[in-house]
Amino acid sequence: MNPGILAVARAELRAGGRALVVLGLLAGVVGGLLLGATVVGDRTASAYSRLVQDTGLDDARAYLPADLPEVTAGFAGLPGVEESWTAYAWIAQIEGPTLQYTAVVAGPERPDDLVDPVIVAGRAPRVEAADELLVGEPLAAAAGLRVGDRITLRMLTLRQVARFDVGFGTPEGATRRMTVVGIGRMPSWTGPLGDSMSTPAFAAQNAGAAGGRSGFARLAYTGDPVADAQLRDDFVAALAASYVGHPRPLLVGNYVPEVPVFPTTETDPAVAASERVLRLGLWGFALVVALGGTAVLGQGLMRHHLRGGADQRVENALGLTAAERAGARVLAALAGALPAAAVAGGITLAAGLLEPIGSQARFEPEGGFRADWPVVLLGVPAVVLVFLAAAAATAAWAGRGVATLPVLTRHRSVRWAVRWPALFVGLRLALRGRALPGGASGLPTLAAGAGIAVTVAGIVASTMLGASLQRLVDTPARYGFTSDLTIADARDSEMRALAADSRVAALAEVETGRVTLDPSRSRQVDAYAHVAIKGDVPISLVSGTLPTGPGQVALGARVAAREEKGIGDTVDVLSSDGVPARLVVTGVVVPQPERGAPLGEGLLVTPDQLGQLFRQPLASAHLVAEPGQAASVYADIADRLEVHLPGMPPEIDTLAGLLRLPEILALVLAAVAVAGLVHTLVGAVRRHTRDAAVLAVLGATPGQVRAALGVLAGTTVLPGVVGGVLLGLGAGRVLWWQVASETGVAPDVAVPIWPIILIVPAVLAGAAILGALPALRLARTPVARSLHTA
Amino acid sequence: MSVRDPALVVRGLRKTYEAGTAPVRALRGVDLTVRAGEFVALMGPSGCGKSTLLHLLAGLDRPDEGTIALDGTRIEDLAPQRLARLRRRSVGLVFQFFHLIEHMSALENVALAALVAGARPQEATARARDLLDQLGLLDKARELPAALSGGQRQRVAIARALANRPTLLLADEPTGALDSDGAAEVLDLFRRLHALGQTILMVTHSREVADGAQRLVRMRDGRILLDGEVTSGSIEVPAELRAASGPWARP
Ligand SMILES: Nc1ncnc2c1ncn2[C@@H]1O[C@H](COP(=O)(O)OP(=O)(O)OP(=O)(O)O)[C@@H](O)[C@H]1O
Ligand SMILES: [Mg+2]
User: Which ranges carry the ABC3 transporter permease C-terminal domain (chain A) (predicted)?
Assistant: First the structure.
């Protein structure tokens, strides 16, 4: 190595060591924020999958008929099953003031790594205790259960379970006193898993009274999607085949789907939608921090190295090559590498204290501090390398052309139409203040402009996202919830009584059956038909029209997206009674989901059409009360009917948990934008103090000088701001479209005109106010000092 | 204003800088009169206050004591706004390091001065073109300063200083950054301007350059030391100066 390099590096350190340490600290902060965002993002995005891992979530899960022991016995031998657990299931009423049911699952011989809820409070039930109950979080929340509570379960008989939907009076099975010993967390507590778990001892005590069986399996997945899909198909086919030759079981029918579910492959759509929102938020944050940080750091390094431009000229004359000159500066920059590493590492580790963001926290299997070592060990060296690379690049940039004359473009004169000299000068300085030899280079200005554009775009997009989320959460009709009460079991006598009730504004019977859509793919969805009994219970229409006759269908938004069907297309369905039909799509709807189906699932047909498809559809009812009357109607019928206040579906609940996120993001971005703008504005003014002094010499009044600098500053940041707004409008639309289609609701975006119109000037004004003082101070620099004429 | 009236009258000018530990007394009572049409060279050792004086004359800074009359107008107490306007009409400044605006062509740099003074755009351009033509730079009108030689840059700067036909052209070491050819170029230009009646006050460290002027003023330690006509290579010290103990140059 040329010994001159070391000498130059030492000189650089002496002259600019402190600046390099400060820049290193800055790099550490920026890198740390990025790595920290990665850590939080990782933890957030992986919360669900880690919970899946830690709870040993089953690959396949099926209801098995209690009255067909052969099917249960054959479950472990189905193709692809590596490990399995066949449990007993009981449906029981929890004694209390309101009608609350629980599905308890228990059984012997559960493998350790299959269906093992994470305990978030209390402890797991002891194997030998028949009176201990682990309650799932959703049930604990719905029924207000806590660890230590003693509850009484009144179990349904098998016969009652089979009639669960059409009514059965009071439970006729055994009564059991239980103690809630723990609250358990699972990725999902639905379907064959029920919503609470008990022990092998409980199973032994109550096996004879079980209302059903549940099978859970670990499948021999290979990781190859095609092979795995085949495995699932084989599993489905074999399970279906194991029913053949037996009389139709009591439990299996319309109420219980024959088709197994595959929990590990079918991520809950609520999870997917909110994960997308979160990931977008974090991505936006990281992108802005990265761009803003790069701009600031790049400018800092650039300025640092431009200051030494004259040195490089001398070094060049002494025979150091461009690479050697840059290398010497990289050696000097090592002084900043240590602080960069320390700060970045510290922030990254500290980020391990943060829980997953927003609603995803409810999937976190391990609370408290979680060190993300891979991110620390890979990320911190990366931060150091990027810092050194940036030092090399800026040194090379600052040292370019010290030997050769700069290439000069011939200059096109502007039209002198601009009358106001301050405006003209400001514009000219802003537009041409780049790529000049020895002067400020265009690169940092461009980076700063891009940083501002991205930040402003982020503000606009998150404002739009926030407004669209708010509107969705505030407007139940947008997610299909158009009624005040739903009644699980629409008996004629009750319907007549309700229709006559003056507190009831509208009442509709909703008939439901399951159809297989596109029969070759065995995808099941609910088919609905609304029969108006009184008034009009509206249906949320996303586009097109509602079906008006047989042969027509309106698809749920999610179904339409998944099947890639639009208005005018045809879909083939096969009902669970074996009746095929070809239907023409007339519109897209968000049906009010029945039985916890995901939003936007299902399809809507006319009652006639439904009658053709099913011999005996299930019937529930949707009720719209007169204003303010819903609670009193509920109170009257809750003791004899299974009636639900629709509340909020989990997808929307999850999104509601994220409502603050876009706001926080917009605020953080606004702060970043203000900081970036101040930096850019002050930097623009600082680069032109000499020009300002020249203007003063030429007789420009102080006001004119300030105006010129103002125009200069404005012109420097305005393209970024305007571009950012446009970019943000587009990005917000795309983002919301993604979230909406993931959620299964209408994808039209809410554009909050006033906030967007106001926020940009507000950010600019904030920057102007904060930047005014340093800028004015710079503008007041004595002419003599600016011109070095003393 | 008749030709005989003084373009500049300075009386008892004092300026002290309060920088760092000890105050620097840059000017300690300067008296100077420059008649219209004179070409005065100002010489003196480094740090004697030449630039400070020029800045005060241009109204870029304020004296602590004393009076300055430009064209008969007292400027030491004027508000910044008025000072700026007066500067447009009455003063043109030329610096050692040109101080052209790098992002503007030669033509735009010159026209800028006229624009700032309130000329209409077409008029400003026409005047700038005219000046560049007179200074032999019309073919360089559209070049950026970086593409010009030092002498050419300084000529553009002089054209800019002349854009508003100032009463007084102040030049602070205009040849200091130029080689001998460039210096000769600039000096020649000043002599031509002088011949046309332009009043010029030029700071220089070069005896040769000073010899091009009509009158030579020497400063030391913030005071005027000597003042006299330039006669090919030496100063003819007037009798009054030899006799007087105080400053000379009273009209
Ligand atoms: N802004 C300032 N702050 C403090 N001191 C100053 C300032 N400007 C000039 N001085 C001091 O005032 C004195 C006169 O400076 P001035 O620039 O007028 O000298 P000069 O005659 O132009 O010198 P040179 O020939 O080197 O240009 C010097 O001692 C200088 O250090
Ligand atoms: Mg000087």
Answer: 664-782
B144 found inside a domain = no
Indicate if A732 and A595 belong to the same structural domain: no
Q: Go through chain B and tell me how many residues it has.
A: 251
Q: How far apart are the CA of B48 and the centre of ligand 2, in A?
A: 8
Same domain, A626 and A766: no
Alpha-carbon torsion (A273, A275, A278, A280), positive or negative: negative
Instruction: Give the separation between CA A764 and CA A760, rounded to whole angstroms.
Output: 6
pLDDT in tens, B81-99: 888 888 888 888 888 888 8
The region of weakest confidence among A349-363, A427-441, A737-751 is A427-441
Residue B206: inside a domain, yes or no? yes
**Do A495 and A504 meet the contact criterion of CB atoms below 8 Å apart?**
no
Residue B203, pLDDT score:
92
Q: Is A181 exposed, middle or buried (0-12, 13-18, 19+ CB in 10 A)?
A: buried
Q: Give the span between the Cα atoms of B108 and B101, in whole angstroms.
A: 9
Residues that place a CB less than 5 A from ion ligand 2: B 51
Beta strand segments in A565-673, E:
570-575, 580-590, 603-604, 618-625, 643-644
> Which tens digits make up the pLDDT trace of A548-579?
988 899 998 888 887 888 889 999 888 878 88
Q: What global pTM score does this model have?
A: 0.65
In this structure, what CATH number is given to the domain that contains residue B78? 3.40.50.300
Which residue on chain B is closest to A689 by alpha carbon?
B101
- Compute the distance between CA of residue A735 and CA of residue A193 in angstroms, rounded to an integer: 34
Q: Which of residues A341, A366, A401 is at a domain's end?
A: A401
Number of structural domains found in chain B: 1
B149 in any annotated domain: no
Q: Which of A454, A395, A434 is nearest to A683 (CA)?
A: A434
Cα–Cα distance for residue pair A585/A553, rounded to 1 Å? 5
Which residues partner with B6 through β-bridges? B35
Among the atoms of ligand 1, which is closest to the Cα of residue B53? Answer: 18
Beta strands in A195-348 (DSSP E): 196-197, 212-219
**Does residue B12 come out as left (phi exceeding 0), alpha (psi in the -120 to 50 range) or beta?**
left
Question: A165 pLDDT band (50/70/90 cuts)?
Answer: low
B39-43 and B199-203 beta bridge pairing: parallel
Q: Which of B81, B124, B144 sits opposite A701 (nearest CB)?
A: B81
* pLDDT over 50 at A532, yes or no: yes
Question: What is the domain range of residue B70?
Answer: 6-100+170-248
- Same-domain check for residues A195 and A85: yes
Same-domain check for residues A100 and A146: yes
How many Å lie between the alpha carbon of B111 and the closest alpha carbon of chain A?
A: 10
Same domain membership, residue A298 and residue A240:
no
Identify the band that residue A406 occupies on the pLDDT scale cut at 50, 70 and 90: very low
Nearest residue in A to B87, CA atom: A699
Same domain, A642 and A660: no
Q: How many domains does chain A have?
A: 4
Q: Are residues A222 and A168 in the same domain?
A: yes
Q: How far apart are CA A521 and CA B219, in angstroms?
A: 101
Q: Of A415, A418, A789, which to mutate for an interface test with B (greatest number of B Cβ within 10 Å)?
A: A789
- Mean pLDDT confidence for A692-696: 82
pLDDT in tens, A75-133: 888 888 889 998 888 888 888 766 778 889 998 888 888 888 988 888 989 988 889 99
| A402–chain B nearest CA distance, Å | 14
| In a shared domain, residues A150 and A218 | yes
Residue B44 CA, ligand 2 centroid: distance in Å: 10
Q: Compute φ and ψ for A123, nearest 5 degrees.
A: -145, 170
Say which of A417, A419, A702 has its CB closest to residue B80: A702
Is the C-beta atom of B46 inside 6 A of ligand 1? yes
ipTM of the complex: 0.78
Instruction: Please give, rounded to a whole number of angstroms, the shortest distance from the CA of A428 to a CA of chain B.
Output: 7
Please give the structure tokens belonging to residue A563: 């099947």
